[in-house]
Amino acid sequence: MLPKLIPEDQKAFLRERFIHHHIRYMSDLQYSITHRREEAYATFLEKAYDRVDWSYMFAVLSEMNGGASLIQWTKLLYTSTNVSLLLNGNAFTKDHSFSGCEKGDPLSALLFLMTIEPLGNLLRRNEGPGICITSTDTATSLFFADDSTLLSSSLGGVEAQLDVVQHYCEGSGAKLNLSKSTLLSLNRHHICKPFALVKVLSGAIRSDTWGFL
Hints:
- This is OSJNBa0024J22.19 putative.
- This protein is of the alpha+beta class.
- Helices cover about 40% and strands about 15% of the residues.
- The chain has helices spanning about 1-5, 20-35, 55-65, 70-80, 105-125, 155-170, 195-200, and strands at about 40-45, 85, 90-95, 130-135, 135-140, 140-145, 145-150, 180-185.
């Protein structure tokens, strides 16, 4: 059922979806942008979201019609679990948390896909800053779990999309980690010119050319 709820721009944890599909897509997109001599940028937000509020996660489950039983069991697993750490033979009780998905839990991967999907939906609905592929198709973003790629037709579009991401973070409790973010030009012949976004991305703009495959 989940593949019907999660659009094709998310390639993680779902059957018959693979990261090499994104690699092929980006390679074709870069070739097209370069051939058409257009301006376009890719902003890579690598493992950029370090937490998500549980109240938000439960609300997303409800909006996606997860069912009362699934929601109740998920709440039980997250709110009624005590964690202890064994360090050098000494046991420590972990402070109770109210955010994040449990590491190593098979359910967590699917829960994370559901909680990050509203971000993808926001970007798809706000397609103005995206890259026009055809008259009916605009590329705005690609996802592989929490590795997100924003696709923008201008530097102003990059800023607009980052505002959308920040809006998502404010609603979900996530925190954007810009230190793990990079901005690159999709046109092989264009170099990213330094501008105000450099300060936002902590100098993460690359000045070289690059390519997929």
